[in-house]
Design a protein that fits this description.
The complex is a heterodimer of chains A (about 400) and B (about 140). Chain A is of the alpha/beta class and about 400 residues long. Chain A has a domain at about 5-115 and about 215-230: Peroxisomal Thiolase, Chain A, domain 1, CATH 3.40.47. Chain A is built from 13 helices and eleven strands. Chain A has helices at about 20-35, 60-70, 85-100, 120-125, 140-155, 160-175, 190, 225-230, 260-275, 290-300, 310-315, 330-335, 340-355, and strands at about 5-10, 45-50, 75-80, 105-110, 200-205, 205, 215-225, 235-245, 285, 370-375, 380-385. The longest helix of chain A is centred in the last third of the chain and has 17 residues, at about 340-355. Chain A is globular, with a radius of gyration of 19 Å. The radius of gyration of chain B is 17 Å and the shape is globular. In chain B, the strands form two sheets. Chain B has a five-stranded mixed barrel. Chain B contains one helix and eight strands; from the N terminus they run αββββββββ. Chain B has two domains: about 10-70, no CATH class; about 70-145. Chain B has about 140 residues and is mainly beta. The mean pLDDT of chain B is about 95. Helix content of chain B is about 5%, strand content about 35%. The chains are: A alpha/beta (about 400), B mainly beta (about 140). The interface between A and B is large, with 38 and 39 residues. β5 of chain A pairs antiparallel with β4 of chain B.
Chain lengths: ~400, ~140
């Protein structure tokens, strides 16, 4: 069986407000990935465009991008699974290459959240859940994750301080990431002084410091067949495992409230496909849209037993020199979360780690990396395992 | 004489802000008007649904009967919101919560008069229809 590789990765700087149009934003991620791969537009057989469309004024951005990126007349199409859109894009690109339909596929994730006004954005956030049965009560993303945090705290005695430790870790590495939107240090004192912004209430028990920020950004992955990977790349990174799952949108349809069933299921599939277990993972990127999401990911991915995720962060085991380094690029908490671009940015970090090109945040000689990318509040889950 | 087509948009009455007007389970609103929170049960295979559904995924049937959500449910989790989406600003702060009724769960809001300090995961609560200041209808969870 022939393998499928990632031969190029790129991303734009993640910023509060990108000073350009969506096609120009997309170009930044695409350009860096194409330069990284060392190929030309004629080598790309198809493109997969990933984002959450409710932020766009442009209808059907895929066609606009194909033109702007010089990818006419190759086919292009759009894929959406909320915040995990670009991991789903990678899954699709893998199938396109594995099937033999295309040799090289570009996966481009983007989001210009500032494309719409703050009021429009608020209105869309209100519709980010089950609009018939949940949104009429006035729901928001932080409140859903807060409900998971409450359930986790109740079941296992996890504390708000444990969650704050995750934000402190994110900021430790966010300061080193030139592409991150939030680069200031964060300490536990930020959470203990009542008048500090980080300690401000959002949706109890989550505080401002527990939440990632909206951002504009783009990311791009160049996916290739084994033959093309060996032709174009000195350091191809192989896709070893892919897992994907869904769950009920409405919380009323969920049985597990101390973790995300989609993450457990997607991880199980990905480990099985790669023929490994959690113990074999040397470095990971997890979807820390909120601090509690990273803590649950430790447990759902098998890095810790259920209820013991806090021990990993208390013991600094998920820092760069710990047992299982997690989000050493700053995570969503520091990088910002431009929805459609996030998965591609996470995958980029792991690819650079496996190539030994991660600079200041390089983990010692990793062979296998994992990416956990969640859409909505555990509505969609993607887990990707990569290896040298 | 052309007959004017009537649109059944009863569902627009649900919640502080409703995002849906037309649904096959619009009778849910009539039950609310009558002081009842109701779910549906598939007449074919007996599967129970809350929130109510018009269609059964198990047997693919669409013949449903209504049942009333009655008695106590167990509080599984909740969160107190200090910020709200557009249209809910007047309601802040408020708690959203999930109650477990065994065969189904109910997502909703904690009654405004229940102080957050008195909430305890695992406590039993009941569900009651609530008429909002703007004339809309929803349901809330109350202490027993």
């Amino acid at each position: 069986m022939s393998r499928v590789a990632i031969i190029g990765v790129g991303q734009s700087k993640f910023v509060r407000q990108y000073p350009g149009s969506i096609r120009e934003l997309a170009f930044e991620g695409f350009k860096t990935a194409m330069q990284d791969a060392g190929i030309g537009v004629g080598d790309v057989g198809a493109s997969v465009i990933c984002s959450a469309p409710e932020y766009d004024k442009q209808r059907s951005p895929a066609g606009i991008f194909a033109e702007y990126l010089g990818l006419n007349p190759q086919p292009t199409f759009y894929v959406e699974t909320l915040c995990s859109s670009s991991s789903t894009g990678l899954r699709l690109a893998y199938s396109l290459v594995k099937s033999g339909l295309h040799d090289v596929v570009a996966v481009l994730g983007f989001q210009k959240m500032s494309e719409i006004s703050s009021a429009e954005s608020q209105e869309r956030m209100g519709r980010g859940a089950d609009i018939q049965w949940e949104s009429p009560f006035g729901t928001m993303m932080p409140a859903y994750y807060a409900m998971y945090a409450r359930a986790h705290m109740q079941a296992y005695g996890t504390t708000p301080e444990d969650l704050a430790l995750i934000r402190v870790k994110a900021a430790t590495y966010g300061q080193l990431n030139e592409l991150a939107v939030y680069r200031k240090p964060v300490t536990m004192e930020n959470f203990t002084s009542a008048d500090d912004r980080m300690a401000g209430p959002v949706a109890a028990p989550l505080r401002v410091g527990d939440c990632c920020a909206n951002a504009d950004g783009s990311s791009c992955l160049i996916v290739a067949s084994e033959e093309k990977a060996k032709l174009f790349s000195k350091k191809p990174v192989w896709i070893l495992g892919l897992g994907a799952a869904t769950a009920s949108v409405n919380l009323a349809g969920r049985d597990l409230l101390t973790g995300l069933s989609v993450a457990k299921q997607a991880a199980g599939q990905a480990y099985e496909m790669a023929g490994i277990t959690a113990r074999n993972v040397d470095v990971a990127e997890v979807h820390d849209c909120f601090t509690i999401a990273e803590l649950m990911a430790y447990e759902n991915l098998g890095f810790a037993e259920p209820g013991e995720g806090r021990d990993l962060i208390r013991g600094k085991e998920t820092y760069k020199d710990g047992r299982i380094p997690v989000n050493v690029d700053g995570g969503l908490l520091s990088k910002g979360h431009p929805i459609g671009a996030t998965g591609g940015s996470q995958i980029r970090t792991i690819v650079l780690q496996l190539r030994g090109e991660a600079g200041d945040i390089q983990v010692k000689d990793p062979e296998i990396g994992l990416v956990h990318n969640i859409g909505g509040v555990g509505l969609y889950g993607n887990v990707t395992i990569l290896g040298r | 004489m052309g007959s004017k087509r009537e649109v059944d948009d009863r569902f627009k009455k649900f919640g502080t802000v409703s995002f849906t007007a037309i649904s096959k389970i619009n009778d849910f609103i009539d039950y609310l008007e009558d002081g009842k929170v109701a779910g549906t049960k598939c007449k074919e295979c007996g599967l129970v649904f809350f929130p109510p559904r018009a269609d059964c995924y198990q047997c693919l049937g669409s013949d449903m009967e209504w049942f009333e959500v009655a008695g106590a449910g167990k509080l599984l989790t909740y969160s107190k919101l200090q910020f709200a989406p557009v249209g809910f600003d007047q309601d802040v702060p408020y708690c959203i919560a999930l109650l477990d009724y065994g065969h189904y769960k109910v997502f909703g809001r904690i009654a405004a008069e229940v102080p957050e300090e008195e909430l305890q995961v695992g406590m039993e609560m009941t569900v009651a229809v609530n008429r909002l200041p703007n004339g809309q209808l929803n349901y809330v969870f109350q202490k027993i």
